[in-house]
């Protein structure tokens, strides 16, 4: 990993309560889709690390020209500060971290089960696989309470049209939406969309409680424990 000085270029809301931040991509930074990085905001020596530094999965894929992060916004010192940080402010990026990345064997199906802002590493990996035209069979089961709370659904639907190997399954707990499942992710939904559960490699990303619940569910429906990879998001 290395530390880079970059500009925070822009910010926008990508779902109800969710903000996206776009930063310069420094020359020489090599990443793999699914990894994560730290953003370090300007601070003085008395600022606690938790108020100046936060980790984010890359929303951008490796081939894209900017770094992009997204997060659920809440009343924390870091998030309050980055919300108010003006565009074009110099910040630091420490990157890359992690090995939550797509497996190489294209004969093994990949199934992403995510909730809320857990979509970010899955989105990055799906974009990269589509760009690279890999032969992976990709399934995304993406759970949210309502469509308004779900980030990047338009982009994911477009990827599903572009990539015949990618199947997008939105799941809404509190809304009836054509083409989506209603309720919570359960054994019936997993069995419906994953044809060979023991053979698939599963990627679980999101808040700790959701990841643990999905791991238990997958074990119940016959997933191979060695084929379950997880990325737990802190602070949600």
Note the gap between the termini.
26 Å
- What is the number of helical segments per DSSP (H or I, 4+ residues)? 6
Order of helices and strands: EEEHEEHEEHEHEEHEHE
- Summarize the biggest pleated sheet: 6 strands, antiparallel
Overall pLDDT level: 96
Looking across the biggest beta sheet, what order are the strands in?
A: 4-3-6-1-2-5
Radius of gyration: 18 Å
Helicity range of the residues?
A: 10-25%
Number of strands: 12
Shape: globular
The percent range for strand residues is 25-35%
Q: Detail the poorly predicted runs.
A: none
Can you walk through the features of this model?
With 236 residues, the chain is an alpha/beta fold. Helix content is 24%, strand content 35%. The protein is built from six helices and twelve strands. A six-stranded antiparallel beta sheet has the order 4-3-6-1-2-5. It starts with a strand and ends with a strand.
Structure summary:
By secondary structure, the protein is of the alpha/beta class. The longest helix has 14 residues.
């Amino acid at each position: 990993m290395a530390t880079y000085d970059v500009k925070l270029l822009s910010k926008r809301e990508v779902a109800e309560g969710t903000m996206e931040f776009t930063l310069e991509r420094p020359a020489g930074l090599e990443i793999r889709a699914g990894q994560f990085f730290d953003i370090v905001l300007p601070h003085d020596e008395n600022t606690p690390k938790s108020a100046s530094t936060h980790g984010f999965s890359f929303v951008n894929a490796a081939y894209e020209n900017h770094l992009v992060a997204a997060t659920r916004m809440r009343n924390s010192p870091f998030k309050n500060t980055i919300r108010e940080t003006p565009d074009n402010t110099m910040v630091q990026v420490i990157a890359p971290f992690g090995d939550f990345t797509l497996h190489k064997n294209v004969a093994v199906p990949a199934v992403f089960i995510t909730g809320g802002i857990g979509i970010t590493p899955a989105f990055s990996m799906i974009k990269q696989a589509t760009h690279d035209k890999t032969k992976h069979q990709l399934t995304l089961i993406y759970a949210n309470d309502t469509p308004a709370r779900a980030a990047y659904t338009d982009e994911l639907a477009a990827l599903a049209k572009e990539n015949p190997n990618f199947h997008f399954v939105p799941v809404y707990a509190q809304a009836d939406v054509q083409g989506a499942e209603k309720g919570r992710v359960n054994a019936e939904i997993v069995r419906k969309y994953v044809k060979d559960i023991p053979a698939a490699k599963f990627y679980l990303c999101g808040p700790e409680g959701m990841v643990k619940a999905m791991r238990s569910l997958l074990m119940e429906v016959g997933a191979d424990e060695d084929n379950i990879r997880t990325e737990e998001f802190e602070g949600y």
